[in-house]
Structure of Lipid II isoglutaminyl synthase (glutamine-hydrolyzing) subunit GatD:
Amino acid sequence: MVSEQRELTIVSLYPRDMNIYGDRGNVLSLVRRARAHGYAPSVVEVDPGDPLPEHVDIVIGGGGQDSGQGRVAKDLAARADEIRGLAADGTPMLVICGLYQLFGHRFVTHSGEELVGIGVLDVETRGGSERMIGNIVLESEEFGEIIGYENHSGNTELGAGSRPLGRVVQGAGNNPSDGVEGARTGNVIGSYLHGSLLPKNPALSDFLIGEAAQRRYGGFAPIAGTDETVRRARASAKRRPR
Ligand code: GLN
């Protein structure tokens, strides 16, 4: 008997304009992890003007400079209803840094330009004069310890409709004063942690894959473990000072 191929369609949102500090690593890692769990993932790259595929299981997008955000903000506004509909329906999504900001209500740049977001996450961001750069460690009730790298000048504040991804143990996070990082509404996660996020934190990949599998196939039985490469990467990221 030919074994059934359980497909998962991953939308990589704006890889041309929003792809910085290794954000592509998140897509590669998600694909590997999905394969390790026995799925057949395919990646559909969606740049401005491209249609979304008919069926979407996971949406993932990265960060970029303010100029790249300006280029994609208009396109994102044009497909806001479609993305809001997918989010409301429980589609798991991970958006990083620049796209995290645009999934909120607005991003006002340091020079005062306002980029309107799609409001899937209840956050607002203002560009600041200082950059928050370095390795970062979070503690999350759901995912345990999360390790990553941040590099942004935007200061993000959470509204009541989103909860943080985690509490900051080391680093800055959403802004230098609130002590929290990221935002979560339903199955949509926004975070400042760039392309090493999924490679170093398989629990987050498993969340995205698990929710997608649950929606499409009615269940998820994880079979991949956490390998030695991931353990080493996590240990070395924590050793390096900010
Ligand atoms: N321009 C935004 C900021 O610095 C996003 C940067 C990024 O995506 N790395 O806050």
Observations:
- The helical segments are 24-36, 66-78, 80-88, 98-102, 197-200, 202-217, 228-239.
- The longest strand covers residues 123-140.
- Residues 20, 63-66, 97-98, 151-154 surround glutamine (CB under 6 Å).
- The two ends are 54 Å apart (CA to CA).
